[in-house]
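hiii so um. not sure if this is the right channel but i have a protein structure encoded as tokens and i wanna go backwards to a sequence. like what aa goes where. can anyone help
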């Protein structure tokens, strides 16, 4: 078979480089979530937080590389009229398929244009599954059994995360063709994760001492808030590169968002930084008003999540105005969660607050903007055959919510029936590091709790 040297052209290799940087940047975000979550937990749970997050992320990423990515490619096989579209997509794109197993130069450009870039995109796509699992883990810290999370990671990576992207993140997915628009993965990443955590938190219940005093005086405690700041700065560093990677680059023609809406790298970078600034300043206002530093940390992230569906098609002024509301929306959701007894102040407030509100707001701000379709196709899949609408954005929220909630509830009920969903109370009190990894990391914390209990007793003794 003759070699196709066009596969290693400068244009194709540039695309490969962009997606490679994007994949590494998403891994940086997983690292950042590790810092944030390890700073948010008790000292005796720090090691377990890191280990379970990393293992879970690896399982989810492997699932997507094994076969999950095929579900996203399914939409393109449907658009191009390939017979038995799902079966052929799996045959071509599972880890042993021809397109994951053959060097690009040995694949004809008429069969798979830009094969190198498309192969690297598999990894970029898999890192989103890793980030999804890392987010979900952050919403159920210090109480979920590791094997529960690992099973969920496998299901999410193999099928659910790619299916959420199939529906809402891409140019020819079924819901994109109805006018749903996404850019930064707000639907398959933030909204999906938030709904999953909502169901899990409901079934798990809150951590001991979260809403009512426990007899041992145990309670959730941030052992090192500075790690949260480090994590937020890492996310702010990585997200612009992720955003640039969520584009189609057609040399000599233009740059398009993942749904093929017209955009440009300059506008994208301006919008991402503007979202950080808008959310960061309003988060700082909340932090000083409530005397709670956490709002200062969450502000830039809430701003970019609030405007995540608008970053490629909005103007910097529109993004700035929208992002300012992000921290306030997240704060209102967090208040509601406390009233409901749901123990999560990070994932659900972001995903079901700025994620949902921002996605629907984009439907109004960008109403009528052309999106979807693919160059060279006609009919339902013709380029820009769809338009952004508020109803379409809301429909995407409902579809992703069902895709997350139903499987999560089924898995939770199965584990509740066979083996348990939550660690035993004595394990939660003593710490997960000792229970799961046979090491007493920061063993002085239990002594601190005992001293606190002694000081609170009438006799001064425990």
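sure thing!! here u go:
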């Amino acid at each position: 078979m003759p070699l196709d040297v066009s596969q290693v052209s400068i244009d194709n290799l540039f695309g490969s480089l962009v997606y490679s940087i994007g994949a590494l940047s998403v891994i940086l975000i997983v690292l950042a979530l590790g810092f944030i979550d390890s700073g948010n937990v008790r000292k005796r749970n720090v090691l377990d937080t890191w280990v379970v997050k990393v293992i879970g992320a690896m399982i989810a990423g492997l699932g997507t590389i094994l076969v999950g990515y095929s579900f996203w490619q399914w939409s393109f096989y449907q658009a191009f009229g390939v017979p038995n579209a799902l079966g052929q997509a799996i045959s071509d794109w599972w880890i042993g398929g021809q397109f994951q197993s053959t060097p690009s130069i040995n694949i004809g450009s008429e069969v798979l244009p830009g094969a190198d870039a498309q192969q690297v995109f598999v990894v970029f796509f898999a890192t989103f599954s890793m980030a999804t699992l890392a987010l979900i883990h952050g919403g159920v810290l210090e109480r979920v059994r590791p094997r529960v999370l690992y099973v969920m990671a496998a299901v999410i990576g193999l099928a659910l995360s790619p299916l959420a992207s199939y529906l809402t993140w891409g140019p020819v997915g079924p819901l994109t063709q109805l006018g749903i628009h996404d850019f930064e993965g707000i639907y398959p990443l933030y909204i999906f994760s938030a709904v999953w955590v909502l169901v899990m938190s409901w079934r798990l219940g809150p951590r001991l001492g979260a809403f009512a005093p426990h007899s041992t005086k145990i309670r959730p405690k941030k052992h090192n808030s500075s790690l949260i700041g480090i994590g937020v700065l890492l996310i702010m560093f990585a997200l612009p590169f992720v955003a640039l990677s969520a584009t189609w680059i057609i040399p000599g023609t233009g740059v398009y968002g993942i749904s093929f809406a017209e955009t440009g790298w300059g506008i994208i970078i301006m919008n991402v930084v503007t979202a950080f600034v808008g959310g960061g300043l309003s988060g700082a206002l909340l932090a000083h008003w409530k005397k709670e530093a956490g709002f200062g940390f969450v502000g830039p992230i809430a701003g970019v999540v609030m405007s995540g569906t608008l970053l490629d098609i909005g103007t910097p002024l529109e993004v700035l105005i929208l992002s300012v509301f992000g921290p306030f929306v997240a704060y209102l959701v967090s208040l509601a969660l406390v009233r409901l007894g749901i123990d999560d102040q990070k994932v659900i407030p972001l995903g079901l607050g700025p994620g949902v509100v921002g996605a629907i707001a984009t439907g109004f701000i960008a109403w009528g903007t052309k999106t979807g379709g693919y160059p060279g196709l006609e009919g339902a899949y013709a380029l820009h055959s769809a338009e952004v609408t508020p109803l379409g954005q809301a429909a995407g929220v409902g579809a992703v919510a069902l895709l997350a909630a139903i499987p999560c509830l089924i898995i939770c009920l199965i584990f509740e029936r066979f083996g348990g969903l939550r660690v035993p109370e004595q394990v939660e009190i003593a710490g997960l590091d000792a229970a799961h990894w046979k090491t007493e990391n920061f063993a002085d914390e239990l002594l601190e709790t005992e001293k606190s209990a002694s000081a609170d007793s009438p006799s001064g003794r425990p």
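oh and DSSP finds 17 helices and five strands in the chain.
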